[in-house]
């Protein structure tokens, strides 16, 4: 870099800094994802793919749940509806209880959404009802091979939704 270019760069930087003095500038840290990733949706998704699961399982890593998240509630509802060949409204309204329980379980497992938020989306279930559904579904999957296979199939479909 020549002396003239350095001088011009300093001038531009000084103007940039002075323009920000006294101005109401939005903090970029307000849009940090998972406590550590700053960028657009595509960049965040690419970064999440590179973070290894063993790193996320360490107790000292904050925001582990958010960092594991790569799906949203609607993605899971659509995949579940497709797998059970029903509408998302059928799942939300509980017309097929197994599909509803599976969707709740998968939302809890693959998103950073709270039990309360899940319950609200499913027509006002309490947060404890959501927890109970998830807690009961795991042993049911151990006993019911068909249920386990269906949930695994939905998870495979999910892996093609984003990424």
Could you characterize what this model shows?
With 163 residues, the protein is mainly α. It has two domains: 3-68, no CATH class; 73-161, DnaA protein, C-terminal DNA-binding domain (Chromosomal Replication Initiator Protein Dnaa, Chain: A, Orthogonal Bundle), CATH 1.10.1750. It is built from ten helices and no strands. The chain has helices spanning 3-20, 41-50, 53-56, 64-68, 73-84, 88-92, 97-110, 115-121, 127-143, 145-161. Helix 5 packs antiparallel against helix 7.
Shape: elongated
End-to-end distance: 40 Å
* CATH class label of the largest domain: Mainly Alpha
Helix content: 55-70%
CATH superfamily of the largest domain: DnaA protein, C-terminal DNA-binding domain
CATH topology of the largest domain: Chromosomal Replication Initiator Protein Dnaa, Chain: A
Our estimate of the beta-strand percent is under 5%
Concise overview:
This protein has 163 residues and is mostly helical. It has helices spanning 3-20, 41-50, 53-56, 64-68, 73-84, 88-92, 97-110, 115-121, 127-143, 145-161. The model has no long low-confidence stretch (mean pLDDT 83).
């Amino acid at each position: 870099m020549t002396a003239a270019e350095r001088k011009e760069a300093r001038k531009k930087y000084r103007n940039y800094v002075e323009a920000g003095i006294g101005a109401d500038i939005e903090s970029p840290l307000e849009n940090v994802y998972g406590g550590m990733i700053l960028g657009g949706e595509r960049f965040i998704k690419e970064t999440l793919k590179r973070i290894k699961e063993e790193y996320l399982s360490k107790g000292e890593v904050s925001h582990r749940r958010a960092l594991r998240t790569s799906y949203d509630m609607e993605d899971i509802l659509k995949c579940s509806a497709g797998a059970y060949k029903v509408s998302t409204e059928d799942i939300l309204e509980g017309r097929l209880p197994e599909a509803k329980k599976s969707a709740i379980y998968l939302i809890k497992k693959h998103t950073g959404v709270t039990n309360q938020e899940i319950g609200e989306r499913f027509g006002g279930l309490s947060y404890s009802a959501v927890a109970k559904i998830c807690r009961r579904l795991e042993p049911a999957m151990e006993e019911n091979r068909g249920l386990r296979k269906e949930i695994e199939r939905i998870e495979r479909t999910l892996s093609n939704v984003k990424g």
